[in-house]
Amino acid sequence: MSLVLIDTDIASFIFKGSDYADPYLPLLSSQELALSFMTVAELFQWAILRQWGDRRLAQLEQYLSNYLVIPVDQTLCRQWAQVRVEQQSAGRSISPQDAWIAATALRHDLPLVTHNIKDFLGIFNLRLLTP
User: Fold this and answer.
1) Are 43 and 64 in contact (CB under 8 A)?
2) Of 96, 92, 77, whose CA–CA distance to 123 is shortest?
């Protein structure tokens, strides 16, 4: 069993029980799953924006307890800056959120499973897992 980082979209698909998760489930089975702190923040933002009640927020918290959540540290901050500068220098844009997720994968040498591959193309040494 190896550790795999999953992007916010995949975590959301799984939480909602969406059919979009189906192609990714074989990639994730028998793997230890991790989330960037940024994914956790994005999922809570999504829930608060949609004015979820306490019961639904508790369900999200329970769901998140199934993952290893990778926190931020100084080395990760430096990796984030590197990702942003490299992408900007190459004429590619990357959102701060996606840069945090990519930096997390790079910092910990983890493959990233995402539905939005185009958001991460061209990032040096980033390993993307796709169905």
Assistant:
1) yes
2) 92
Q: Is 5 helix (H, G, I), strand (E, B) or coil?
A: strand
Enumerate residues 6+ apart whose C-beta is below 8 A from 90.
Answer: 122
Strand pairing partners for 44? none
The token pair at 88 is 């900007």
Report the DSSP beta bridge partners of residue 34: 5, 68
**Gap between the Cα atoms of 95 and 100, Å rounded:** 9
Helices 37-49 and 8-16 pack at an angle, to 10 degrees, of 50
Write out pLDDT tens, residues 78-98: 999 999 999 999 999 999 999
| pLDDT greater than 80 at residue 30 | yes
**How far apart are alpha carbons 23 and 130 in whole angstroms?**
9
